[in-house]
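Dig into what follows:

_____
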Amino acid sequence: MAMSRSAQGYSAALASAVFLSTTSIFIRHLVTEFDMPPLVLAFWRNVFVIATLVPAMLLFNHKLLRVERAHIPFLAIFGLMLAGFNGFWAISVAQNGAAVATVMVYCSVAYTAILGWKFMGESLGALKFAAIVLCLCGCALISGALNASAWQSNLLGVVAGLLTGLCYTAYSLMGRVTSERGISPWTTLLYIFAFAGTFLFLANLSGGWLPGSAVTPTDLFWLGDSVEGWTVMILLGAIPTVGGYGFYNVSLTLLDASVANIIVSLEPLFTAVLAFVLLGETLSPVQLLGSALLLSGVAAIKLADLRRPLPVPQEA
């Protein structure tokens, strides 16, 4: 029975990684085939996540729709962090490609370890310190941050990629606080996506002042009457987020959180394979080296934390 539960847990965690790995593939398709503004895309993604969650909660457990008023301000700030993460990630995928953008998100593991040590009293031994250095060096190689020409030719992509990791760091740390408050992860997911969607809607009313946002209100309906475009958008909202989180939550009932999180860290590998097969993307030798350094550092940090529950993975 123990082996059976373990096998089910590993299968659920792997399924979560596969679902999450498709996020940037959907985003890349929308920005390349439809030239969709990234922040408009991020807004509709949030809308369809909510449109998937609400009926499911009404059908299976309507109590998940309710939250104490005292938690609303915190969830609003949490939603703001998610809006930043979703927005910067959409821009990063548009500028850097699906594989590079996904790998760069995992720079957040190093940032989280540093902030956890500085502000939350978490340990930072020699192994974890070395792993953080590996992560940061890998992130610099992947993004091209050490190459002066990259800052000139792809300034928006480099900045968006780095900010994606920082926003997800804040998201991860706030996720720890949420669990301590006893809020259901599904209720949290619904409310933070609702707040994030609101913030992204306001961002798209800036008249194009923000990079990747709508220039006019009509740009919010960028896809027009395209059946293919709206189908991909609906799938983006429903499959990676709901499927990824769903299988991850199942894995947490069968495995230690640290073990499940390490398995889900295979997401960049799956994304790279999908990006190569479906989009024809390839990583340069320098980016491959950076990816190896970063993911090695991520694995080392998470192995060092095997006895401590880790935060929920990025695809929200």
About this structure: The chain is about 75% helix and 0% strand.
